[in-house]
Amino acid sequence: MTRISLTVDGARVSDDVEPRMLLVQYLRERLGKTGTVIGCDTSNCGACTVHLNGTSVKSCNVLAVQADGGEVTTIEGLAQDGQLHPVQEAFRECHGLQCGFCTPGMIMQSVDLLNSNPNPSEEEIRLGLEGNLCRCTGYHNIVRAVQHAAGQGAGATS
Amino acid sequence: MIPAAFDYVAPTSVEDALAALAEHGDDAKIIAGGQSLLPVLRMRLNAPEWIIDLGRIESLRGVRDDGDAIVIGAMTPHAVVGADPLVAEHALLITKAVEHLADAQVRHRGTFGGALAHADPAGDLGAPARALGASFVIQGSGGTRTVGADDFFVDLFETAIGEDEILTEVRVPKHTGWGAHYEKFVRVAHQWPIVAVAATVRMEGDAIAEAGIGLTNMGSTPIRASGVEDALAGQPATEDAVHAAAERATDGTNPPSDLNGDADYRSHLARVLTRRAVLAAAGA
Amino acid sequence: MTATQERPADAVEREIGRDRRRKEDQRLITGRTRWTDNLQLPGMLHLAMVRSPFAHATITSIDTSAAQDAPNVVTVLTGKDFGEELGVCINAWPITPDQVTPVHSPLPADRVSFAGEIVAVVVARSAAEARDAAELVDVEYDELPAALDLKDAAADTVLAHPDLGTNKSALWVFDSGEAGTGGNVEDAISKARDDGIVIEREYRQQRLIPAFMEPRSVVVDPTSEQLTMWSATQIPHILRFALAATTGVPESKIRVIAPDVGGGFGGKLQVTPEEWIAWAVARRIHKPVKYTETRSESLLSAHHGRDQWQKLTLAAEKDGTVTGFKVELLADLGAYVAIVGGGVPVLGAFMFNAIYKFPAYHFACQTVLTNKTWTDAYRGAGRPEATFGIERMMDELAAEVGVDPLAIREKNWIKHDEFPFTTVCGLEYDSGNYEAATARAKEMFGYDELRAEQMARRASGDKVQLGIGISTFTEMCGLAPSRVLGTLDYGAGGWEYASVRMLATGKVEVTTGASAHGQGHETAFSQIVADRLGVAFEDVEILHGDTQVAHRGLDTYGSRSLVVGGEALVRAADKVIEKAKPVAAHLLEASVDDLEFSGGRFTVRGTDQGMGIGEVATAVFAAHDYPEGVEPQLDSDATYDPVNFSFPHGTHLCAMEVDTETGALTMRKYVCVDDIGNIINPLIVSGQVHGGLVQGIAQALWEEAVYDDSGTLVSGSFVDYLLPTAADTISFDIDHTTSPSTTNSLGTKGVGEAGTIASTPAVVNAVVDAVRHLGVNDIQMPCTPERVWRAINGPGAGGSTTADAMPHFDGEGEQA
């Protein structure tokens, strides 16, 4: 067991974990942050995407011990003071989700994308989401959602 | 989805990492960014007893100017390399290759040295490294040695790094002012390339003075297409001239046959993509 | 005292047709979800499965001792440890009386029939420890020859189940001559051979994997009087029935809950070995258990779809008027006959004639057992295969006649003034307008301009050629009239159930037997009920997916939820109004005959007196004052059995660019105009269409489940089973024409599968069209760049896929 301490969605947490525990498992099983989900075992699907120290990572592809001392934001920590993040709002507005399983990862990656490029073209959005799989939407309305959020200045505010 | 149990150490210096490696030897695996290793561990295709994490060694991160070369620390994340102005100025080919390497999340986490040391012949950095004549600085308990790109890649997933050694940095000779293009052929965006061609050229007027060409996934290692480089030297950057030179792209290659293409198709692709990559690099 | 927001009587805005944002989304976009794998129960134990690496083998021994001794392992069980309480996985649709059906044990004790079949289960305190111990189970196998290739298997060269003596499971035949619904197809073909056109083709429907994003998960809690199963399933009600029918637990002791379910696409229309094993283990050890599959396990062992060879013979007159169509299919069932199983190709049997007036038709499907993962429904289930077959053939006919492929379709399709139309299969299409949808699609597409560009590129010998693909599809959905299912020997009915409960505060609780997993029922059904009862959208709560809450139902698949389940809602709501009427009359001191109901209010004709339905509900709750002989409640339910299938149709146009040097394909434009009758929520419909399109496009271009010569699934992870990303797809241009259905109150038609059914042939037709002038008339799916390149540069349809994966995960890489 290894002792780790980190900040998750603004709260400081500290636990003894097995070194083999993945960050996503730590979030789900130890912290109850079940908003972040596991969709594959090859890190293709991106459903587990969270932010680690300010940028997006696939939390199935990070060991919990590697996140020691870090700051993690999950889908559950994105809304502030009951106010949805503009990207969350945009996904609802543009029907950018159906079953919702890929949605946490898709939203977290979209936020990261807009952080680094507040006014992306459609092509830049599509390439920026290449690490996230969705089986329901055909991506059409996800792209619309990111465009909508960009139009709302989501990249500048977050 | 859950790796087999292992012990973990995260040294803060290369010396400590080497000591851990010496202590655990065959039972240990080094983790850099972990973007290729962790899937292997999750699917239990490998089960080391120790994981030595280089992630806490600050000296392995960053890009610096070193006279006639730029030096990229082995633990520099792809995203940092891709955004680095020194790299863009002196080794544009690397910037171009990193741009479409894996996906954004992996580029945040994966590292330049880790990807090269992993030596997947379908990886996106081996071909640019060969095309640019990069050299690899490898540290062991006995000191440091430098291995040229032509000798670094030994076989599928095998490099010149010894079991008791660590890749610390990659030196890339400056190619200031060279044009560059990385032509990657995939069926879907999140795939490893079926074939890719890394091309960088120095133009003199309308002619190609020098060229560096590397091939991805055309054999068990990244391949330098020396025949194409030789044939291009002094040629005009025209469709016909480059086409003729690109016909030599398959010299010395041994492409695989798999789900994504048979060897003869890959050979065909290598020739076509080489022509396109060179013309794009030449700005033609 | 009512808290209900009555809609003002003058507010005429209807909910139906509004692009309401979804009620479901708030929790899904904030991570406040209840996926099955999220559940944690006190004392819960975790399962790990030990799976066969061999496609076909005798189990000679299983040594579980090392696993039993591993840390925190509770027990390790094999097939031999269970008796009849383990139950069996069922086939609900024996398509012929003499269908050969192997017994499908969830945990076979003696022989495995596909690579991935479960041979032992480990129960431990954590999922990690269960997995650790599973690695220690030592199974010895005696490998048997495996039946892998579909055509070889159909010839019985190697037997998938030696005890059955054959791989041929069932031969299902429909012949219009014999049925009296049309002529004799052989006559039509021989006449066409003499004096017409005969097109003969063989097409491959490759094996696909549904690949829903949420891996399957099951939790069983045996710690109360009723045993509860949570499962990531599309079919909680059918699952409950099957558990009762096969495991000896009375149905009344079983509660099944499908909480948030992350997609299905047919892939979760199944009763699975994993569910049955979890059920048996929980009953055995009296503790809650959970099993969640990995993606690799999901791709390997959750059922696959499609997998057919289609031998097609089309007879026509010289002008392109079709005179007969003969369809001979081989369909790969995999190792077992799954719950729908051989019924999947049969669902396509009535659709090869599509929108056309064919005078003669013959369909024969031989289902075949192999030693591969079993197949079953995948989005469209039988109808995509049929649509592909006919729409590819119509393009081939057009090429033969030398006319535009739209012209050949128009020559043969049913005209809008010919509805209702009885087809050569005996189905009655209630409504449609193929001319209108096609005209609109052509206009949006810029059809003539793109054809001109195509000609220009051909003329100039451009390295990038342009192709235009057409699919004028229809399909049968809204499964299904129960009597029809009965005549087809399906093991259940096709009705749906709904109830409407009027709460004391005037809020409305609705239960539906449909079980959503991404479709947006909570929103669309709220709109229907809000309109019907005249209450606010926000005041309607849709409850589903729990057999204790919505106790009756037949679940969600086959584009049935709206056209069958929605009609049940309408009827239940109408009963509420009928029940409320005498109470309202009593309270308003008026005659029932003088009451009108509109906009949620009962009013007395010719007066300004009235009261809202919520007020009636409140009054009935108090029950202080209501008429004699009337029950003090308004709650109502309805079970609706459809009278016909639903027949959406549409015209899809696709432009593909083909790089003739590399074979690389780029989609340039995709337009579709679907006629799905009246639309409840256009936003949700657009999502269904977009998602459906990409799944169909993905069959055309990317997806293929590939096995090697030993029966190992080579495309066993998302590295090799290629789902498209946002970067591989484009934005679509969609629109609708409207021919309301005449067989349900709302005039709606199914939309869930339409995009998938229509798009695959549109894309392949476009690819072939781009290179037809280079001598190509077919490219096998998926149309990989390599296949396109080979087809351009040689004979054939591009060849088969090499069954080796790239070795990315074999690496002993030094520093990854």
From TrEMBL, chain A:
The keyword Oxidoreductase applies. Transmembrane segments: none annotated. Keywords: 2Fe-2S, Iron, Iron-sulfur, Metal-binding, Oxidoreductase. Residues 2-78 form the 2Fe-2S ferredoxin-type domain. InterPro entries: 2Fe-2S-bd (IPR002888), 2Fe-2S-bd_dom_sf (IPR036884), 2Fe-2S_ferredoxin-like_sf (IPR036010), 2Fe-2S_ferredoxin-type (IPR001041), Beta-grasp_dom_sf (IPR012675), Diverse_Oxidoreductases (IPR051452). The keyword Oxidoreductase applies. PANTHER family: OXIDOREDUCTASE WITH IRON-SULFUR SUBUNIT. This is (2Fe-2S)-binding protein. It comes from Nocardioides mangrovi.
From TrEMBL, chain B:
InterPro entries: CO_DH_flav_C (IPR005107), CO_DH_flav_C_dom_sf (IPR036683), Diverse_Substr_Oxidored (IPR051312), FAD-bd_PCMH (IPR016166), FAD-bd_PCMH-like_sf (IPR036318), FAD-bd_PCMH_sub1 (IPR016167), FAD-bd_PCMH_sub2 (IPR016169), Mopterin_DH_FAD-bd (IPR002346). Residues 240-250 have a biased composition (Basic and acidic residues). Residues 1-177 form the FAD-binding PCMH-type domain. It holds the Pfam family FAD_binding_5. This is Xanthine dehydrogenase family protein subunit M. Keywords: FAD, Flavoprotein, Oxidoreductase. SMART domains: CO_deh_flav_C (SM01092). It comes from the Bacteria. Residues 236-261 are annotated as: Disordered. SUPFAM superfamilies: CO dehydrogenase flavoprotein C-terminal domain-like, FAD-binding/transporter-associated domain-like. PROSITE patterns: FAD_PCMH (PS51387).
From TrEMBL, chain C:
InterPro entries: Ald_Oxase/Xan_DH_a/b (IPR000674), Ald_Oxase/Xan_DH_a/b_sf (IPR036856), Ald_Oxase/xanthine_DH-like (IPR016208), AldOxase/xan_DH_MoCoBD1 (IPR008274), AldOxase/xan_DH_MoCoBD2 (IPR046867), AldOxase/xan_DH_Mopterin-bd_sf (IPR037165). It holds the Pfam family MoCoBD_2. Signal peptide: none annotated. Residues 7-25, 807-816 have a biased composition (Basic and acidic residues). Residues 1-25, 796-816 are annotated as: Disordered. Gene3D superfamilies: Aldehyde oxidase/xanthine dehydrogenase, a/b hammerhead (3.90.1170.50), Aldehyde oxidase/xanthine dehydrogenase, molybdopterin binding domain (3.30.365.10). Residues 30-145 form the Aldehyde oxidase/xanthine dehydrogenase a/b hammerhead domain. Keywords: Molybdenum, Oxidoreductase. This is Xanthine dehydrogenase family protein molybdopterin-binding subunit. It comes from Nocardioides mangrovi.
